[in-house]
Design goal:
Distance between the termini: 72 Å
Strand order of the largest sheet: 1-6-5-4-3-7-8-9-2-10
Pfam family, one: CYTH
Number of domains: 2
Helix content: 40-55%
Protein name: CYTH and CHAD domain-containing protein
Structural class: alpha+beta
Number of helices: 14
Number of strands: 10
Strand content: 15-25%
CATH architecture of the largest domain: Alpha solenoid
Order of helices and strands: EEEHEEEHHEEEHEHHHHHHHHHH
């Protein structure tokens, strides 16, 4: 069956109001009043709602459409499919495959909304849609609860104009609102996207549990966006969560049973490789598109053929990724991860502090850099980048138990990672282009590719030149962060 899919990003602000609230006079066009019913679907354990995801069937004047709302940076990505079917459309089920995991997707709530509002205008054009929602929570046909709120969806203007609009609504009686989706408020749950915390004095294993819980939530949160495939940042964030999870397992291995942590590392490594194959092409294409932007129009047209070739390779890698994300192995891994968050398998080691773990990783990094020659190889710098990342994750694990100096160390670690990351990205891009050169038959194409290769080589040299200074800064930060008190 063919579906018509619409998508847009919703930039929304919510305000709470009382039953007697009335919109103040705001320049704009009055919206026609609407009454619609929203039927929400989820697993029995509310796995979607806990991630701030909404799946609903919306009925309005005998028209029915399905909507899926996914967290997207500071906003929400809204997907909509017109359909009169009583069950969620296949495209939405495909996007939610990793979250539903073959569990029944059932009705969890039904809301009836009376909506009125205005499309606010300025001299320059539309500013925002302001709607007043009077919501009734239904049990069958019986009302079991009510609440009201204002939703402000930004259409244009700047931040100052939006703040002025909010101030006007507050002066009319509106109050700071609950940013959670309606269904999350109705269920009375806090989304899992809210990062858990632990007291600084808690045992090391408790800090580890919170850190891996955050990574599992990140992985799940970006799973649908990775499947949708429109924003490369979704896949990037999902991949980072797998890498960080593995690095935390490695850093905290003294706290954990080896057979438990090793099996998790193996499975997360498998997932990381599947994600990495696509992510590497995303980075490569972004770098090459940036380099191509400075070419002359005729040269840019020639170079586009190279980009098309690489995009074809990315499509193949993405097909393999989607196959992995639909596999039983992936579903088992997700179940295993959720179990691991609540019940990590501790070793019998006692008395090890998180600061000692972080210091150990920093010392490993320092020894690696100390052994470098004056002109280290590309492979050696890549290994330093990996070791820097591992040391940083170990520091983040210990961050709440240490002084502010470790925060400055973590910040400088990111700077060094960025320098070495630019170096590695330029190497990969240059290598890919050189591999394509033998198949180039046109001297014009070869000339353009040669120009881009030269630019990439220059980028590598700039990163190499910046490395010693950035490392000295990190070494200083590390000594301050991990020195023993006098």
């Amino acid at each position: 069956m063919e579906y018509q899919l619409r998508e847009w990003v919703e930039h929304e602000i919510k305000l709470n109001i009382g039953s007697r609230f009335r919109l103040p006079d705001i320049p704009g066009d009055t919206l026609a009043p609407r009454v619609f019913t929203s039927t929400y679907f989820d697993t029995a354990g509310h796995r979607l709602a806990r991630l701030g995801i909404s799946l609903r069937r919306l009925t309005d004047h005998r028209k029915t459409r399905w909507q899926l709302k996914l967290p997207h940076k500071r906003s929400r990505l809204e997907l909509e499919i017109p359909s009169h079917h009583g069950t969620p459309p296949e495209p939405f089920l495909d996007l939610l495959f990793g979250l539903l995991r073959n569990e029944p997707c059932e009705v969890i709530a039904k809301l009836r909304t009376k909506r009125s509002g205005i499309r606010a205008q300025t001299m320059e054009g539309p500013l925002a849609t302001i709607v007043v929602d009077r919501v009734t929570i239904l049990d069958g046909r019986r009302a079991i609860g009510r609440f009201s709120e204002i939703e402000i969806e930004r259409l244009g203007g700047n931040e100052k104009e939006m703040n002025r609009l909010k101030s006007l609504l507050r002066s009319a009686g509106a109050e700071e609102g609950d940013p959670r989706p309606k269904i999350v408020k109705v269920l009375g749950i806090q989304p899992d996207s809210t990062a858990p915390t632990v007291a600084a004095s808690a045992p090391p294993l408790d800090h580890f549990k919170v850190m891996i819980e955050n990574q599992v939530k990140e992985l799940l949160l970006h799973d649908p966006g990775t499947r949708f495939g429109k924003d490369p940042e979704e896949l990037h964030r999902m991949r980072v969560s797998t890498r960080k999870f593995r690095a935390l397992l490695r850093a905290a291995k003294v706290l954990l049973l080896p057979e438990w942590s090793n099996s998790l590392r193996t499975e997360m490594g498998w997932l990381g490789q599947a994600l990495g194959a696509v992510r590497d092409y995303d980075v490569l294409l972004a770098h090459l598109q940036l380099e191509a932007s400075s070419l002359l129009p005729a040269e840019k047209k020639i170079f586009c053929r190279v980009l098309i070739s690489l995009e074809t390779k990315r499509s193949v890698a993405r097909a393999h990724l989607l196959e992995a994300l639909r596999s039983d192995r992936y579903l088992k891994l997700l179940n295993y991860l959720e179990e691991a968050v609540h019940h990590p398998m501790p070793s019998t080691t006692e008395g090890v502090t998180l600061k000692e773990i972080a210091r150990k990783e920093f010392n490993k990094l320092r020894r690696m850099v100390r052994q470098l020659k004056s002109n280290p190889s590309d492979q050696e710098l890549h290994r330093v980048r990996i070791r820097t990342k591992r040391a940083r994750y170990a520091a983040e694990l210990a961050q709440r138990t240490m002084e502010k100096a470790v925060s400055r160390y973590i910040k400088q670690s990111k700077r060094l990672q960025g320098v070495l990351g630019d170096h590695q990205d330029a190497i990969i891009a240059e290598k890919q282009l050189r591999e394509l050169l033998p198949g180039i038959r046109s001297y014009k194409s070869a000339f353009v590719m040669g120009q881009v290769v030269a630019r990439l080589h220059s980028r590598r040299q700039q990163a190499r030149a910046a490395f010693p200074q950035e490392w000295e800064k990190l070494k200083k930060r590390g000594r301050l962060a991990f020195s023993e008190p006098s």
